[in-house]
Design a protein that fits this description.
15 strands, alpha/beta, 256 residues, 32% strand, five-stranded parallel sheet
């Protein structure tokens, strides 16, 4: 019998202890580690490669959703969410996660969650499509406010990156490259999906594959066929397509 590996993530030690105790009673699973916050969870998922994560939603620092966004669907294990807050789009959990646990829960409810996770893992049906759908559903259920940060990998660790420090965002297939004064970062998002969550008064599309932070633009120079060249304050340049020229100029003028 395949024994599936589980990582327990919760900022409260008693909650982690409860999950580990309940896991010990189920021979189908083994606990391979625990994490007390989102940053630690990212490192443990990368190093331990668990099959399943029992993941708290609301934690100091990074939320459970930010952990999943940082990992990306292709690298993410199956997930059982654990939350004390009904406001976190429980219908999304029902549709796309292995299961969710609404705190406080008992041993019987935990076993039912493990049953669902075991069925998904055994059938190999917890793929990236489900996580993409979950994150999209949760994003729509969040309050309508611009995205303020993303979690990016720096060296062997993970750090939150404030988006107001990002000068430019460029599409690279299924990824977006973020340009900052401290360097570049790749995140597994599409440019379109990120654009929908960014502050439209700060970030403006200037090309099919590029968004710029208006605060980073030093000057606009003419180029050819109605296109222009934006010179950013770090000296780098990006094409301003004539398709987006009018909208850019309106926003740029409003930002002055």
């Amino acid at each position: 019998m395949t024994v599936f590996r589980v990582l327990v993530v919760d900022d409260e030690a008693p909650a982690r202890a409860k999950v580990k105790r309940l896991l010990a009673d189920d021979a189908r699973f083994t606990c391979v580690g625990e994490a007390s916050d989102g940053t630690e969870a990212l490192a443990r998922i990368e190093s331990l490669r668990p099959d399943l994560v029992v993941l708290d939603v609301q934690m100091p620092g990074l939320t459970g959703f930010e952990v999943l966004e940082a990992l990306g669907p292709d690298a993410c294990p199956a997930v059982i969410f654990s939350t004390a807050y009904e406001r976190f789009a429980l219908q999304a959990f029902e549709a796309h996660a292995a299961d969710y646990l609404l705190k406080p829960y008992d041993a019987g409810r935990f076993t039912r969650a493990l049953d669902k996770a075991h069925a998904l893992l055994s059938a190999g049906t917890h793929g990236s499509g489900a996580l993409d759908a979950l994150l999209a559903t949760v994003a729509k259920a969040r309050p309508e406010r611009p995205l303020e940060r993303l979690v990016v990998k720096v060296g062997e660790g993970w750090v939150p990156l404030r988006l107001d420090t990002v000068w430019r965002l460029s599409s690279e297939d299924k990824y977006v490259r973020l340009f900052t004064a401290q360097g570049e970062h790749l995140v597994r998002q599409t440019l379109r999906a990120l654009e929908e969550r960014l502050d439209p008064t700060r970030f403006v599309r200037v090309h099919r594959g590029d968004l710029v932070n208006l605060e980073a633009v030093a000057r606009l120079e003419p180029w050819t066929h109605g296109d222009g060249i934006l010179v950013l304050k770090d000296g780098s340049t990006v094409i301003l397509s004539r398709t987006y020229r009018e909208a850019f100029l309106q926003q740029w003028g409003a930002a002055d």
